[in-house]
């Protein structure tokens, strides 16, 4: 019978664990520091949403103030704009609950809602979204490149289902 001595197994096991840990660390990308790093296409000019793409401050054609309300509404509840306009959305949370403002079409809103429902409910800001804590204000600059009906939705669990969406009509 062939037996392995414990003195041989332990150093080999420790070495395997060290190599495994170092390899895993080397292959794990660091979490991006900014939302732009989540979406490198922002810098390439490609659209990341059916609703358009992130805008640049120097392109802003209109500033719109939006309030998030604990009654699960946005104020105003609808916007009508022209294709090609770049909006500066000033989103202020006047309530006591956390809210979001996410720009997208119905399919994108549904996908984001499913992601949030799957336990990915951490606050995040992205090229087409902001999470706004009570009393805070955030800015979102967005260029609407094509006509259609889009939404600004809040996907904090239960909010979108309660009707927290504003309609954006692009002519």
Description:
The protein is an alpha+beta fold. Strands 1-8-5-2-3 form a five-stranded mixed sheet, with no helix packed on it. The protein has a single domain (48-170), classed as Immunoglobulin-like (Sandwich), CATH 2.60.40. The protein is built from four helices and ten strands; from the N terminus they run H-H-H-E-E-E-E-E-E-H-E-E-E-E. Keywords: Copper, Metal-binding, Signal. Residues 65-170 form the Blue (type 1) copper domain. Residues 28-46 have a biased composition (Basic and acidic residues).
Q: What ranges have pLDDT less than 50 throughout 5 or more consecutive residues?
A: 19-46
Mean pLDDT: 78
What name goes with the CATH superfamily?
Cupredoxins -  blue copper proteins
Number of domains: 1
**CATH class type:** Mainly Beta
Radius of gyration: 23 Å
Q: Tell me the structural class.
A: alpha+beta
The dominant shape is globular
Give the N-to-C terminal Cα separation: 83 Å
Major sheet size, sense and barrel closure: 5 strands, mixed
Strand content: 25-35%
Strand order of the largest sheet: 1-8-5-2-3
Gross CATH architecture = Sandwich
How is the quaternary structure best described? Answer: single chain
Number of helices: 4
The ordered H/E elements are: HHHEEEEEEHEEEE
């Amino acid at each position: 019978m062939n037996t392995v001595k414990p003195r041989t197994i332990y150093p080999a096991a420790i070495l395997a664990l060290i190599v495994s840990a170092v390899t895993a660390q080397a292959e794990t990308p660091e979490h991006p520091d900014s939302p732009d790093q989540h979406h490198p296409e922002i810098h390439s000019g490609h659209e990341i949403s059916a609703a358009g793409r992130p805008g640049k401050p120097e392109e802003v054609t209109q500033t719109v103030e939006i309030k998030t309300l604990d009654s699960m509404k946005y104020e105003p509840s609808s916007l009508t704009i022209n294709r090609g306009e770049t909006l500066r959305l000033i989103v202020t949370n006047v309530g006591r609950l956390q809210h979001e403002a996410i720009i997208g079409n119905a399919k994108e809103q549904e996908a984001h809602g499913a992601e949030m429902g799957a336990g990915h409910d951490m606050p995040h800001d992205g090229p087409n979204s902001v999470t706004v804590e009570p009393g805070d204000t955030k800015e979102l600059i967005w260029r609407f490149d094509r006509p259609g009906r889009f939404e600004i939705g809040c996907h904090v669990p239960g909010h979108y289902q309660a009707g927290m969406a504003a309609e954006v009509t692009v002519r």
